[in-house]
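A reminder from the course coordinator: this example appears on the midterm review sheet, so study it carefully.

Given structure:
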């Protein structure tokens, strides 16, 4: 079945280039030049859209806001749609912020269409095909927190904690290496990112801070993800 892509991009020339290239590679593209038109299209085609390619700078709404609206949707078919964000900003903080707002990947302009295609394929694979080890591993429970590798879900007190792909992969890596002290390079390699130009230390620290805000009872005094000064981080085996 042909995969359907929702492209939210206000630059008509770039939108035409992306649409033509993806169509040549057997994707069906629905183009919206504004954020609101994109959200309307997503709602109308909720069961058909497999992925969103989203520009950060739009005339009526910031791409970050679009991410938030999609992830906050009560419609499960909508809030789980993966998002690849396009932006002219290449700063590490901007990239991390985009990912933490709910994007699954991030590509800075200018880019080669084949790079965008590769990232789209990678994101779709991550969402559609959990690896065999995950499928067979069962849930991982630490006190009130449980990680479900097969469904990419996390619960605390049996309530679902909504995480981005990056956040889940980072937490899952922690959970499968509980008790071990992990350096930032190890944690970086555990997440879906192939841009070696990133400031790894800064990016990981931001990821950890955002993840703590979601899973710690008190992020200022973390009990699950512990900082080991001068080395990295450790995921506690004994949690309440």
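Designed residues:
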């Amino acid at each position: 079945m042909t995969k359907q892509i929702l492209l939210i991009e206000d630059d008509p020339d770039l939108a035409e280039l992306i649409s033509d290239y993806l169509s040549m590679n057997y994707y069906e593209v629905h183009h919206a030049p504004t954020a609101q038109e994109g959200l309307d299209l997503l709602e109308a085609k909720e069961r058909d859209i497999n992925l969103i390619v989203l520009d950060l700078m739009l005339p009526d709404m910031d791409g970050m806001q679009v991410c938030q609206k999609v992830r906050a949707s009560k419609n499960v078919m909508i809030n789980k749609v993966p998002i690849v964000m396009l932006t002219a900003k290449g700063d590490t903080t901007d990239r991390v912020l985009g990912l933490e707002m709910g994007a699954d990947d991030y590509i800075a302009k200018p880019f080669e269409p084949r790079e965008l295609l590769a990232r789209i394929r990678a994101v779709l694979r991550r969402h559609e095909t959990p690896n065999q080890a995950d499928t067979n591993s069962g849930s991982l429970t630490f006190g009130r927190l449980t990680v479900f590798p097969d469904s990419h879900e996390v619960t605390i007190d049996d309530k679902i904690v909504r995480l981005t792909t990056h956040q889940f992969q980072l937490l899952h890596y922690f959970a499968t290496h509980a008790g071990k002290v992990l350096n930032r390079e190890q944690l970086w390699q555990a997440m879906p990112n192939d841009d070696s130009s990133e400031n790894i230390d800064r990016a990981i620290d931001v990821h950890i801070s955002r993840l703590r805000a979601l899973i710690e009872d008190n992020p200022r005094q973390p009990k699950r993800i512990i900082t080991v000064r001068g080395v990295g981080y450790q995921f506690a085996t004994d949690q309440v």
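The CA atoms of residues 18 and 117 lie 9 Å apart. Residues 132-235 form a domain with the Arc Repressor Mutant, subunit A fold (CATH 1.10.10.10).
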